[in-house]
Structure to design on (433 residues):
């Protein structure tokens, strides 16, 4: 049960509830499609090419972008860096309910934001203060860090409650739409998702960006989960350094940098995150188990998927995993969700079982079905082109992708139809050693 309190009309209420269709307003406010088409949206470049690409070309005036991520991911760092660049296009109002103005200023200084930049700081969690500051400074861009800390006094619930979150966001959306300001909203997400967070706000905002990565270091990945002004296939890879977040133009290079040479159980996957190809290393370790039910431990891939894959390999290809513990990890803190990673993981497991490394210039992709069949994956050509760029000479791919003529020049691709063939090939290599 969640207590919901509506604010009385006339107090600037913009509750999502009070905005229903009113009888009688007919088509008074309607505009022609052609007229609306001519009214093109203006984009404000953020100064970071990677972020612009994810946004579809910069922040759109009059829009609300929500940036969600775990604490420590680097959200405040990113928006501080962006505020310096964005302020070239108009005043930026940086509202923080978490830090004092001097804390933000210290960070901004360290991140190289020039001290003459038109950035106004407001350390307050009261929406009334925000509204007053907006009236006074007339900013072009509003940054709210974070939405969970802002609250409206008239609502009695605590900051961060569903009621507060919705109302605060609705008011910020209104500020964006009415005055054509761009609003950048930060939302904390927790791993278990127990705290009412960005999820309940996704439908209210125009763009939802997820900021993956944690304080342990490693690459930070920004994806668009929803974008009313562009695609959702793009992703940006950033790296946290001493002086803030840095763009990583060649993420495959970053993920492959520390790849061990000549090690059993290490395989390079040609994965695709959205539209972007990404070469990732997967490592597997198979060891005899002392447990009655052996362990299947996955890092960076779905645990259930690993269990299924292990079962398929045992049942359909005779790989002896029944009495073995199986550990699989994506190197460099990466993670993959797509089924196209299956074949690479299977190869890594087989390579670990026979204790023989696979060729260094080999990339792998393909989905493995429950019957052991290898299924075609989307964007095979893009994956292979990325592999060619990084000097890979051979590829193990689904037969149907080869039959569709999706193999570019410059790489020798071997098409396979069943997992049995792949395991047999690896076992043959091991016997010839
Ligand atoms: P922060 O941006 O405050 O994370 P969030 O707002 O998402 O909670 O900072 C994330 C971490 O990054 C913080 O622990 C310190 C580190 N950091 C750097 O390594 N370099 C820097 O230049 C900055 C500003 C932070
Ligand atoms: Mg922060």
């Amino acid at each position: 049960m969640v207590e919901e309190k509506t604010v009385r009309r006339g107090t600037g209420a913009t509750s999502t509830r009070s905005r229903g269709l009113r009888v009688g307003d007919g088509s008074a406010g309607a505009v022609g499609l052609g007229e609306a088409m001519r009214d093109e949206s203006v984009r404000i470049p953020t100064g970071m090419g990677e972020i612009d690409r994810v946004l579809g070309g910069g922040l759109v005036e009059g829009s609300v972008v929500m940036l969600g991520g775990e604490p420590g991911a680097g959200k405040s760092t990113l928006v501080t860096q962006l505020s310096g660049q964005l302020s070239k296009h108009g005043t930026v109002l940086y509202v923080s309910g978490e830090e004092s103005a001097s804390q933000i200023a210290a960070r901004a200084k360290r991140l190289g934001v020039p001290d003459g930049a038109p950035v106004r700081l407001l350390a307050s969690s009261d929406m009334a203060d925000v509204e007053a500051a907006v009236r006074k400074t007339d900013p072009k861009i509003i940054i709210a860090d974070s939405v969970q800390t802002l609250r409206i006094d008239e609502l009695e619930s605590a900051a961060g409650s569903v009621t507060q979150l919705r109302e605060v966001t609705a008011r910020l959306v209104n500020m964006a739409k009415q005055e054509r300001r761009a609003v950048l909203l930060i939302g904390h997400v927790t791993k278990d998702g127990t705290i009412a967070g960005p999820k309940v706000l996704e439908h209210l905002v125009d763009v939802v960006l997820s900021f993956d990565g944690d304080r342990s270091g490693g690459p930070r990945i920004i994806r668009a989960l929803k974008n009313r002004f562009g695609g959702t296939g793009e992703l940006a890879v950033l790296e946290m350094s001493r002086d803030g977040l840095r763009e990583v133009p060649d993420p495959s290079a970053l993920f492959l940098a520390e790849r061990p040479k000549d090690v059993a159980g290490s395989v390079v996957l040609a994965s695709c995150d959205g539209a972007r190809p990404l070469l990732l290393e997967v490592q597997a370790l198979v060891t005899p188990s002392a447990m009655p039910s052996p362990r299947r431990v996955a890092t960076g891939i779905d645990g259930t998927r690993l269990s299924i894959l292990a079962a398929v390999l045992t049942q359909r290809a005779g790989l002896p995993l029944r009495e073995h513990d199986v550990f699989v990890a994506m190197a460099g803190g990466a993670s993959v969700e797509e089924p196209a990673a299956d074949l690479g993981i299977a190869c890594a497991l087989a390579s670990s079982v026979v204790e023989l490394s696979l060729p260094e210039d080999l990339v792998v992709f393909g989905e493995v079905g429950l019957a052991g069949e290898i299924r075609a994956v989307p964007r095979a050509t893009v994956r292979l082109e990325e592999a060619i760029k990084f000097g890979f000479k051979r590829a193990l791919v689904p037969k149907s992708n080869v039959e569709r003529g999706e193999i570019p020049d410059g790489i020798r691709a071997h098409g396979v139809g069943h997992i049995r063939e792949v395991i047999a090939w690896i076992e043959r290599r091991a016997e010839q050693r």
Observations:
- The longest helix spans residues 162-179.
- Residues 10-25 have pLDDT under 50 and may be disordered.
- The radius of gyration is 26 Å.
- Residues 40-249 form a domain with the Rossmann fold fold (CATH 3.40.50.300).
